Amino acid sequence: MSTANTGLSRRATLYASFASVAGWAFDLFDLFILLYVASTVGDLIFPVASPTLSLAAVYASFAVSVLLRPAGAAIFGAVADRNGRKQTMVIVLAGVGLSTAAMGVVPTYEAAGIAAPLLFLALRLVQGVFVGGVVAATHTLGTESVGQRWRGLMSGLIGGGGAGIGAALASGVFILVSAIFPGEQFNVWGWRVMFFAGLMAALISFLVLRGVEESPLWKAQQQTPGPKTRFTDLARGGRGGLLVLNLVLVSGAGSQYYLTSGFLPTLLGKVSGVAQSAQGTILLVSSLGVIVAAVAAGELSEHFGRRRTMLVIGSFNLVALPLLVWLITSTDPASTGLIMFYASALAFFANAAYAPVLVFLNERYPTALRGRGTAICWNLGFMVGGLMPSFVNLASPELADVPGRLMVFLFVMVLVFVVAGVLSPETRGAMNAEETEERAVQPAAE
């Protein structure tokens, strides 16, 4: 991996890249845990008569966490731009891991009454703030620490690959915990152990503190004289329209993710009736496919441009994603091999579409605003996407209605993504141009 234009050694570059990918993966692992235990949490903490309403309540708790991410983006985005990416990453990773683990000690509704869902929701709010801040660090440190040639690949590896790794880890933990706590034991202890596994994110924060070097672009920007940037600068100087367009694009991208990979556990378990023993394997395989898709699409964006890559894959997804949902839900649940193929294809194409989005956002903002700009756009956009599963459940009176509603939501949100892509400019190379300008104004070394 080339280190040209970064000033970092190869080892430091690889360590920063690993920390960014691992940090985002473990944060998404902590989020995925709820998706894997949604049915159990719904029964134990949000018990209602209707199964769809119980699921809607669980996904609403997920949405509540998503709603707080923009606040975390604003708080920790400013910290990342002012104090550095590394310091921010340590704080937010520790916060996510500890808040997730705390969910494992929440009492059931039967034991604590209304206090149970309220406590669970409060922890989801705390987690959402920290996850919102993670983006400001992981989504900038990695791309700022590699040369231009590798930024597309790094975008896919962190944004989509990190999601795939996090989902794969969650699937692996789910398979292991389900084996250790089978059947009714899972409803007693298994789901709690799943949340305790979130402490791995806190462990990563200490590794980051010990071994990662600060972003070279951020350090160079700190040495360059210039006025202080404010949060309001994101909407000043002609950036208001840019901000809105970025938000629309990421909303379409985030919706593709949450309506496919994020909805698969429910689609397989509650809607299609796939055996629990097979669900973990299907989700694990589809998660591995996500990693391949994201890295490949990110690399393609370095050769063909961010805009063209997003448009081609997005246009294909207009037809492919709704079709694959129909194929999954109309296939005999005993045909696990076929369902695995369809589920893997669904996750593959949906995640490939947004693989270049991370570096696209990085390239839309200068270094002094990159942490805030990337974090705000990513979190607000994925906030919209994170609400979509709840809307699908609420729009479905019966479980049998879910596939049709899901297909409609997918088509509309992919169309939003494509239209925003058409209206967006090409950004490839923008960060490289900024590096050249910064070096030109820095004083010569004595």
Automatic annotation (TrEMBL):
Location of this chain's protein in the cell: Cell membrane
Q: Which Gene3D superfamilies match?
A: MFS general substrate transporter like domains
The reply to whether NADP figures as a keyword in the UniProt entry is: no
Signal peptide location: none
Q: How does it sit in the membrane?
A: Multi-pass membrane protein
**InterPro entries per the UniProt record, alphabetical:** MFS, MFS_dom, MFS_trans_sf, Sugar_transporter_CS
Single GO MF annotation: transmembrane transporter activity
**Keyword Membrane in record:** yes
**Annotated transmembrane regions:** 12-38, 44-68, 89-109, 115-141, 153-177, 189-209, 240-259, 279-298, 310-328, 340-361, 373-392, 404-423
Gene Ontology cellular-component annotations: plasma membrane
Major facilitator superfamily (MFS) profile domain location: 16-428
Protein keywords:
Cell membrane, Membrane, Transmembrane, Transmembrane helix, Transport
**Principal location:** membrane
* Protein name per its UniProtKB record: Major Facilitator Superfamily protein
